[in-house]
Write a structure and sequence with these properties.
The complex is a heterodimer. Chain A is of the alpha/beta class. Helices cover 39% and strands 25% of the residues of chain A. Chain A contains eleven helices and ten strands. In chain A, the strands form two sheets. Chain A has a six-stranded mixed β-sheet, with helices on both faces. A four-stranded antiparallel β-sheet of chain A has the order 2-1-4-5, with helices on one face. The radius of gyration of chain A is 19 Å and the shape is globular. Chain B starts with 5 loop residues before the first strand and ends with a helix. Chain B has helices at 56-63, 86-95, 113-124, 131-142, 159-171, 189-206, 217-221, 241-246, 251-259, 265-278; strands at 6-18, 27-40, 45-49, 71-76, 79-80, 96-99, 177-181, 209-214, 226-231, 234-240. The chains are: A alpha/beta, B alpha/beta. Chain A binds chain B through residues 42-43, 156, 185-190, 193, 212-216, 218-219, 238-239, 242-245, 251-262, 264, 267-268, and chain B through 51-52, 159, 188-193, 197, 200-201, 203-204, 215-219, 221-222, 241-242, 245, 255-264, 267-268, 270-271, 274-275, 278.
Chain lengths: 268, 279
């Protein structure tokens, strides 16, 4: 059986002065059902571009070569018209900043409904009911009333929950989460991570979790890809990455993690 | 405590907010900071931690005299500067400097680094001994930047380097206290570690005191001597860094510490063993 998502030799190039620059170089990994893969790296390492290439959402002029197979079907280079049937339906993505991903002029209920109507059709009334259920599912209190509110009326953590409700309303098989908790306070981050784990246990979706935070990775991911400057340095189990890192860069990342129980050593 | 460099007593800030309509809504006051008191001894670091909206940045801004407190007192070396103006304020500005979160938005993109670093001197009307060029070159070296890059513009530096420029600018007037308002929060973790090392080295060399504003308790652990935890405008707990981290007394501090993502303890033990082998 083929894995849910199989990425092989993915190379992404963006237009740069005098031609193209590779921002991801021959990256390969797989994600199964009920499986979580983490991608870690610092800014500019190419982790977000990997996700955007999978979703077919590269910035204008961006090129991707190699292969991305979803459920055994090649989706790299697929016509936008066909990709649109997949995006939001069988694979969804959530981003770091929920406020910029929500339309400020529409109620959140309407925006969640739209995600459903676009792929599954049916009556608006039925979709409306589902949207409220989805909001209850992600832990928004009083969902019937809150569905009629606008994005600015929610806190940062609630907005990210709404994005998750919208991403999951069609019950996708794959969720790509690009730094979903980076902008959130640490207590809210803990809640959102718990929510994602619960939803994954319920639906068996595959999860691609992108973050720069190794401690978060250690909690959510079974396997991890370490990236730097577009290069895939390691693709190992999370345990191996922490306990026996092969690459010097992975070691330096691990050393740089600020830890609450580190001794306060004397300054040099 | 007369040996404190900075004394803050019952510092309070009210903001006026209008409910509903911005123009016609009913006025009410929102107390962002409520009777906050703390001391910062010379050469030491006080970290103020809390989540967004806790009032930590508002507190920092009042200490830096960027906004006026509603009530309370601020004193430096025992001298009250709560309502300092003109000459007196300029004097305090040379003792207290700020490093902000986003290095690029706090550096003028159209000015060379030399001009940025010399700006606080011009403001203070100070002529450095040995001339501007020599002085700014020395500042660059002090923060680990190449002095030959003085005539470059901020956009030509990485985020970590730009933050070093922000630190160099703060040091230009030889302050006693530097307020770091989420100064390393936007940096990648390896760069963050380097900038923290720099701040600690400068503290040792120059005897600087820091107020270190952060939401990341693990980062605070690397730099702070004392920690004050803020929630909803109030300091709920303060003490030595060790005490607050190891034996938190306040329920909010406990929640905050418990929410930090933990690495599997077995993995973490092996991670630290590996780090020791390398050292």
């Amino acid at each position: 059986m083929s894995p849910l998502l199989a990425v092989s030799n993915l190379t992404v190039s963006l237009p740069a002065s005098g031609g193209y620059a590779d921002v991801v170089r021959s990256s390969s990994f797989t994600i199964g059902e009920d499986d979580t893969l983490g991608i870690v790296g610092e800014s500019g390492s190419g982790k977000s571009m990997t996700a955007l290439a999978i979703m077919g959402l590269l910035p204008r002029g961006g090129r991707a070569t190699g292969s991305v197979k979803f459920d055994g079907t090649e989706i790299l280079g697929m016509a936008d018209r066909d990709l649109r049937h997949l995006r939001g339906a069988v694979m969804s993505m959530i981003f770091q900043d929920p406020l910029s991903s929500l339309n400020p002029y529409y109620t959140v209920g309407l925006q969640i409904e739209e995600a459903y109507l676009a792929h599954r059709g049916g009556s608006r009334k039925a979709a409306h009911k589902l949207a409220a259920e989805a909001m209850a599912e992600v832990g928004i209190p009083d969902p019937a009333v809150r569905a009629r509110h606008y994005p600015h009326q929610f806190s940062g953590g609630q907005r990210q929950r709404i994005m998750i409700a919208m991403a999951l309303i069609c019950e996708p098989k794959l969720l790509i989460a690009d730094e979903p908790t980076t902008a959130l306070d640490v207590t809210v981050q803990a809640q959102v991570l718990k929510l994602l784990a619960r939803l994954q246990a319920q639906t068996g979706m595959g999860l691609l979790f992108i973050t720069h935070d190794l401690a978060v990775i250690s909690q959510v991911a079974r396997r991890v890809v370490v990236m730097r400057d577009g290069e895939q340095l390691e693709y190992v189990t999370t345990e191996e990455a922490f306990c026996s890192p092969r690459h010097a860069y992975t070691r330096s990342l691990l050393e740089a993690i600020p830890r609450i129980d580190d001794a306060l050593t004397e300054a040099p | 405590m007369s040996d404190a460099l900075l004394q803050v007593r019952d510092l309070t800030k009210d903001f006026t907010v209008r409910s509903g309509n911005a123009l016609f809504g009913r006025k009410s006051t929102f107390r962002a900071v409520d009777a906050v008191s703390f001391d910062v001894p010379p050469g030491q670091t006080l970290a103020i931690v809390g989540e967004s909206g806790s009032g930590k940045s508002t507190t920092a801004r009042m200490v830096a005299k960027l906004i006026e407190p509603t009530s309370g007192t601020l004193s430096l070396h025992g001298e009250d500067f709560t309502h300092a103006r003109g000459q007196q304020l300029a004097r305090f500005r040379s003792d207290i400097q700020v490093v902000f979160q986003d290095p690029f938005s706090s550096l003028n993109p159209k000015h060379t680094v030399e001009r940025i670093l010399a700006a606080p001197l011009d403001y203070q009307g100070i002529k450095p001994a040995g001339g501007r060029r020599a002085f700014t070159r020395a500042l660059m070296e002090q923060v680990g930047l190449n002095p030959d890059h003085l005539l470059r513009y901020p956009a030509q530096f990485s985020g970590g380097q730009a933050q070093r420029i922000g630190i160099a600018r703060a040091l230009a007037v030889a302050p006693r206290l530097v307020i770091c308002d989420e100064a390393v929060s936007a940096l990648d973790v390896t760069v963050q570690a380097q900038v923290i090392d720099l701040l600690r080295r400068l503290q040792q060399q120059l005897g600087l005191a820091y107020i270190f504003i952060a939401h990341d308790l693990a980062v605070v652990r690397r730099i702070a001597h004392r920690v004050a935890v803020m929630s909803k405008g109030v300091i709920v707990e303060q003490g030595s860094c060790q005490d607050v981290m190891r034996n938190p007394r306040d329920p909010y501090t406990k929640t905050l510490l418990a929410a930090i993502p933990q690495i599997n303890p077995e993995w973490d033990r092996r991670r630290q063993e590996n780090a020791k082998e390398l050292a």
